[in-house]
Amino acid sequence: MPGNSSSPTGIGAPDTQNLHYSFDAGVVHFVYMSTETDFTQGSDQYNFIKADLERVNQSRTPFIVFQSHRPMYTSSNEVKDTVHREQMIEHLERLFVKHNVTLALWGHIHRYERFCPMKNYQCLNTSLSFVYPGAPAHVVMGMAGQDYQPSWEPRPDHPDVPIFPQPERSMYRSGEFGYTKLIATREKMTLMYIGNHDGQVHDMVEIFSASVHDNSTTDKLVVAVPKNAWLYMEIAGGVMLALLLGFVAGFSVRRKRETARWTPAGNEES
Hints:
single chain, alpha/beta, Purple Acid Phosphatase, chain A, domain 2, eight-stranded mixed sheet, four-stranded mixed sheet
């Protein structure tokens, strides 16, 4: 996840002179932005994101993943981040919806939390497997290993901290350390949250490509039918019926003839 550190990543990402960039990886287009600099409408970052999303070829990359640091949606409602969240919803969410962003990944909160696909605080789908509904699902994934923020649930090591209630739009959240795995094919994208303590998948969501689903032959089967098709079908049906009746009549006549020629060998008692 993009962080608020200026340390080089060493994995080929652009240097810190440019905190907004994008690239394609397989069937996914990734877009990165900094929440620590201006992203409101008219800013350099906003203009970059808008132009970048407009250029995406979704026939080649049917999925778009947006990543940044401070989350647009979270149930850890720290007052200090309220302005950031409201500005992102006001300025960025409309771009996400307009240009079919599939998934938005965030850090900052040292927990894992997955939200349903969101549009202006409204949840568009609550299932674990769905066709892209027109807005991105949001996932906070800051649970790599540092634990210093208030938890969502009471724990023995800090039982007196406030508990942030879990809203209905929050599909799953956990205070356990772990990592995520993202897998994408042309048909669907799958995100899994795996716990460090047991190596098991604790949360998973599948998002099917809307374009692939719309073009699926299983959903839309178009068959070209000649203008005289019904006439041909009626003639063919009549011929088949005549053949069937002829077979039955022939079989019945043959059976009667065989019965008439049959003579018992004997029926008397000795």
